[in-house]
Amino acid sequence: MESKNRPDNTNLFRLQGLGVTSCSPLGVRGIELLSPAKNLECGLAAINHGADAVYIGASQFGARASAGNSPEDISALVQYAHRYAAKIFVAVNTILTDEQLPEVEKLIWDIYNTGADALIVQDMGILKLNLPPIALHASTQTDNRTVEKVRFLQDVGFSRVVLARELLLEQITEISAQTDVELEAFVHGALCVSYSGQCYMSQANCGRSANRGQCAQYCRLPYHLLDADDTMLVKNKHLLSLKDLDQSDSLEEMIHAGVTSFKIEGRLKDTDYVKNVTAYYRKKLDAVLEGSNKYQRASAGKTTFFFEPNPEKSFRRGATDYFLHGRKPDIAQLNTPKSLGEPIGKVTYIGRNFFEVHNGALLNNGDGLCFINKQGDLTGFRVNRVDQQIASSFSNGAGNSGKNRVQIFPADMPRMDVGVFLYRNQDQLFEKILKGKTAERKVGVRILFEEVATGFSVQLTDEQGVSTQLEMACDKQPAQKPDAVNENIKNQLSKMGNTIYEATDIQINISSPWFFPASQLGEWRRQALEKLDEARTAAYVREPKREAVAATFPVDQLTYLGNVTNKLSEEFYREHGVAEVAYGFEVKAEEGVPLMYCKHCIKFAMGWCPKEGYKATFKEPLYLRNNDQVYKLTFDCKVCEMRISKSDAFL
User: What pLDDT does 63 receive?
Assistant: First the structure.
């Protein structure tokens, strides 16, 4: 079921000025691939590899404190992206102090003046500032899990809401059916074990707030799991460290559920990651959108790739579709928070200075391999030399048919046993490919060359319907080789060179085979393309800020979970019907309250869920311990949530 009132975001161009027309189809929903950018270089790579939009951090006040960018770099990215009708969203999504608000207001005006398309925010105090007419997106840090919360954000002026990662497909469908705001969903990348915006462990332990972009990632540490009698149930495992999200096989379902924007996590990732993962999802989405009369790409330009993208070759802790299709027990990566990479196969023989593995993929000298040792730790080593030996087809232990037998000579021989499973977490050849030119993005242009009374004209119409016409007055002379005239015209007009355009169709309408010097046709083409550039720039329209309407917050009492850390935020909630507003954990750290709220449940993951019929053989409460850090686990089985609080037990 889809919301009938959802706004159409695909009609990016409008009639502006003489000679410019737009004919983007109405009633067709634009589907957006949204990629991360740590910096300008990553942002440009994302656009070149097919992103319809890019999100990037401002110079400060972003939820990734180490990924800030100057207004100059954001402006450069905006100008480049808009050439493809792609959008740039800037994150200012931390919670703020009273002293920071004037600085944030100035920063937001600076962002608006770069030409950026939207602002991603968490702190509701921002809505009380003197804002430019820039579209607002509600960050996932605002904890958007219910119809009531999303509808409220829609009504107070947000154009888009970034959904919580933990939602079921049915919940997304329900939210979409009862709201008319754009919905954005994460589909790939790192997962926080806590609901976004509801984690205070880092703040409690070392004063580094996740809500201020400074998370110390305590969820990635190893823990012992103990019962109330101090019995060791699980020893030294990464019980809170989740696998990475991968919902690439569910894109069509999510589109039908109402998702408009598909978001790749990774504002701390490098350019190679952005290239590879963006390309992978571009190909996946294009396959879904091909031939559709209901959905289309949200930006312009067809991307050609010069490599085969593979997300297993970028940073990856394994993969899970999380809760999209229901709860699963294996969403945590218990052995390591580091990247495992792509599965290779099992070791079948160990020699003095080499070992053998049956493998379907060719390994390279210099590759990085890793495995989980007997102690449960990740062990890695570098390949010094590889000997490939072709053999008959057999299973490689990864669910695929192997096609070669490989002898691997490591730089240093690791201690391992026959049967250990290997992963490749660094592919030397693939990384070399990514350093070169890996993609090209071109905007399709139809060309009409025709004769007019005073000479000739060149009409260019891009794939989104923006059209310009260049008329050239000149004398007409018969060609000495009439049969070659049309071919000459097509050849010269199709030479788009280093521009962003490619000719998809050329029509010629002339009364006689006139003579056209190649240089003259080339000059007309150059002038016509310049005119099209100007027309596209003039026709691009930023989405305005959504008008707010009367709205009441879903609850009338706000605890520390509301993350209120300034007076304007408090005023905002009181104006919208909240009678009691508690200040956030960063301002007033309450003792004994949960530091994490998690849909991930350790008891379920271990097969100990009472709702599944398990009869406990241990005494609760359960505890997590890492050195002198001890946390108490409580379980709300009615809503299937696990909560983690600090504890002094066993110290």
Answer: 64
For residues 295 and 26, what is the distance between their CA atoms, to the nearest angstrom? 11
> Could you tell me which of 116, 106, 251, 241 has the C-alpha nearest to residue 172?
251
Give the CA distances from residue 217 to residues 330, 483, 628, in Å, rounded to whole numbers and listed in that order.
Answer: 20, 71, 16
- What pairs with residue 443 in β-bridges? 501
Asked if residues 552 and 159 have their Cβ atoms less than 8 Å apart, the reply is no
Closest CA to 74 of 51, 90, 53, 50: 90
- Alpha carbons 573 and 478: distance in angstroms, whole number: 77
Tell me 465's DSSP state: S
Phi, psi for residue 21 in degrees, rounded to 5: -125, 155
Alpha-carbon dihedral 317, 321, 326, 331, rounded to 10 degrees: 0
pLDDT in tens, 88-125: 999 999 999 999 999 999 999 999 999 999 999 999 99
Residues 370, 403 contacting (CB under 8 angstroms): no
Give the total residue count for the chain. Answer: 651
For residue 267, which of 49, 72, 89, 82 has the smallest C-alpha distance?
89
- Domain positions in the chain: 29-191+246-302, 193-242+586-651, 329-434, 442-536
Positive or negative: CA dihedral 450, 452, 456, 459: negative
Of 160, 166, 200, the C-alpha closest to 186 is 166
How many whole angstroms separate alpha carbon 42 and alpha carbon 64? 15
Looking at residue 65, its pLDDT comes to 66
- Name beta bridge partners: 529: none
Tell me the backbone φ, ψ of residue 644, rounded to 5 degrees.
-120, 125
The yes-or-no verdict on residue 398 having pLDDT over 70 is no
Return the CATH number of 329-434, one of 2.40.30, 1.10.10, 2.60.40, 2.30.30: 2.40.30
Residue 469 · residue 445 · CB < 8 Å: no
- 396: confidence class by pLDDT, cuts 50, 70, 90: very low
Is residue 256 within 8 Å of residue 30, measured between CB atoms? no
Beta-sheet strands, E only, within 453-603? 455-462, 467-473, 501-509, 557-558, 580-581, 596-598
Written as six digits, the tokens of 394 are 């057999």
- Topology of domain 29-191+246-302 in CATH is TIM Barrel (3.20.20)
Task: List CB contacts of 639: < 8 A, sequence separation 6 or more.
Answer: none
Do residues 371 and 437 make contact, with C-beta atoms less than 8 angstroms apart? no
- Which among 185, 460, 420 is positioned nearest to 323, based on CA atoms? 185
pLDDT of 1: 42
**Cα R_g (the chain), whole angstroms:** 28
On whether the CB atoms of residues 649 and 623 are closer than 8 A, the answer is: yes
Q: Please state, as a whole number, how many other Cβ atoms lie within 10 Å of the Cβ of residue 535.
A: 24
647 CB neighbour count, 10 Å cutoff = 17
pTM of the predicted structure, to 2 decimals: 0.92
Q: Single out the residue of 375, 372, 336, 379 nearest to residue 222, CA to CA.
A: 336
Distance between CA atoms of residues 508 and 448, nearest Å: 6
Q: CA–CA separation, 27 vs 297, rounded Å?
A: 13
DSSP per-residue codes, 84-145: TT-EEEEEE-S---TTTHHHHHHHHHHHHHTT--EEEE--GGGGGS---S-EEEE-GGG---
Q: What angle is formed at CA 287 by the lines to CA 285 and CA 291, rounded to 5 degrees?
A: 110
Return left, alpha or beta for 479; rule: phi > 0 is left, psi -120 to 50 is alpha, else beta: beta
What is the average pLDDT across 248-277? Answer: 97
